[in-house]
From TrEMBL:
Organism of this sequence: Echeneis naucrates
Gene: ltb4r2b
A biological process term (GO) from this entry: positive regulation of cytosolic calcium ion concentration
Transmembrane residue ranges: 26-51, 63-86, 106-128, 140-162, 198-219, 231-248
GO molecular-function terms, A-Z: complement receptor activity; leukotriene receptor activity
Protein name (record): Leukotriene B4 receptor 1-like
Pfam families assigned: 7tm_1 (PF00001)
Keyword line: Cell membrane, Disulfide bond, G-protein coupled receptor, Glycoprotein, Membrane, Phosphoprotein, Receptor, Transducer, Transmembrane, Transmembrane helix
Length: 353
């Protein structure tokens, strides 16, 4: 392993740093620059809208607030990666190499776990309306969120362990410093990337898909009309996150697959080349998911812009909250009678969840 105080140490021959391909590096730097310009003001506008404009925050609003805080903080960190990609050398030292990538992984887990919590919360509100006051109360939600943040801090530790500053020889045979994965055994590669993809993508999406299947099944069983803004918005967040993170996890699995072949085999060489040439772009695409939510909310709340100005996003989130709160009692009535007209649904309002 190499550290910043000993730059003469020979680097790991495994070259899977994000600067191993010039075209991918340049494209990645461009994407991250746009992400920074959109993501920082966009996410902190969401934070301001919820904290300053919404007095009674629902569970959904609290989850969106945490998601915006996580994404906004990550957007601030992109400036380091823009410099890294632009210079194609790591200038921030070994400690920052570890910390920055650890924080990025923490954000990845936090984002998908928060989105999973949104989906589970909607499931509880739709399928278990009589228990929603307790299960989905703000007090319980806040405790779950605290536990989640502690959990993601622990789950992201492998990115802290398997990441180091080291020397690398580029295509021009020039030596440079890179911040790259540092695996001494093939088992480490297989463990880190499989662990990351299973916990950061496959398992959460299994829960999310299951939640929405159960939600749709219950809505078909009850057969009453209702406003589904919250389901539509959360589903859009889910789909968008998956679209931007899927390529990253595909590259992870390509790297895992490569480790099962001999180093000099043609298949290993091809898989390694695909992973190396794609890593910068797929990593940059993953960052887009953190700046895309403000854009999504803007389109979802465009009907409020003319009337409410800068308060439009707060009105959007209040509307989502009313969807959730209006569901609870209406579902109780539906379960009891088997049928509810649209006027009775719109007239019923429960406590915030």
């Amino acid at each position: 392993m190499i550290n910043s105080s000993n730059p003469n140490v020979t680097g790991n021959p495994e070259d899977d740093s994000v600067v191993s391909n010039d075209f991918s590096t340049a494209l990645g730097a461009l994407i991250l620059s746009l992400v920074f310009l959109l993501g920082v003001p966009g996410n902190f506008f969401i934070v301001w809208s919820i904290l300053a404009r919404i007095r009674r925050r629902s569970v959904t609003s609290i989850l969106i607030l945490n998601l915006a805080l996580a994404d906004g903080f990550l957007m601030i960190l992109t400036i380091f990666f823009i410099v890294y990609l632009a210079k194609q050398t790591w200038i921030f030292g070994n400690t920052m190499c570890k910390i920055l990538f650890y924080l990025c992984n923490t954000n990845m887990y936090a984002s998908i776990f928060l989105i999973t919590l949104m989906s589970v919360h909607r499931l509880v509100a739709v399928v278990l309306p009589r228990k929603v006051s307790y299960i989905a109360s703000k007090k319980i939600a806040n405790r779950v969120i605290v536990v989640m943040w502690l959990a993601v801090g622990l789950i992201a530790i492998p990115s802290l362990v398997f990441r180091n500053e080291r020397k690398d020889i580029n295509e021009m045979n020039k030596t440079r410093l890179v911040c790259a994965p540092d695996h001494t055994h093939p088992q480490h590669v297989r463990f880190q990337y499989t662990f990351e993809t299973v916990l950061g993508f496959i398992l959460p999406y299994t829960i999310i898909i299951t939640s929405y299947v159960l939600i749709l099944r219950r809505l078909r069983q009850t057969k009453f009309r209702r406003n589904v803004r919250s389901e539509k918005l959360i589903l859009a967040i889910v789909v968008m996150f998956g679209a931007f993170w899927l390529p990253y996890h595909v590259v992870n699995m390509i790297q895992v697959a490569a480790e099962w072949y001999q180093e000099d085999s043609d298949t290993r060489i091809i898989l390694d080349h695909i992973a190396k040439s794609s890593r910068a772009v797929t990593s940059a695409l993953a960052f887009i998911s953190s700046c895309a939510n403000p854009v999504l909310y803007t389109f979802a709340g465009k009907s409020y812009i003319r009337q409410n100005g800068f308060a439009f996003m707060a009105k959007l989130f209040e509307g989502i909250s009313s969807d959730t709160t209006g569901d609870k009692k209406s579902r109780k009535t539906t379960l009891a009678t088997g049928n509810v007209d649209s006027n009775s649904i719109s007239a019923q309002n429960g406590n915030e969840v």
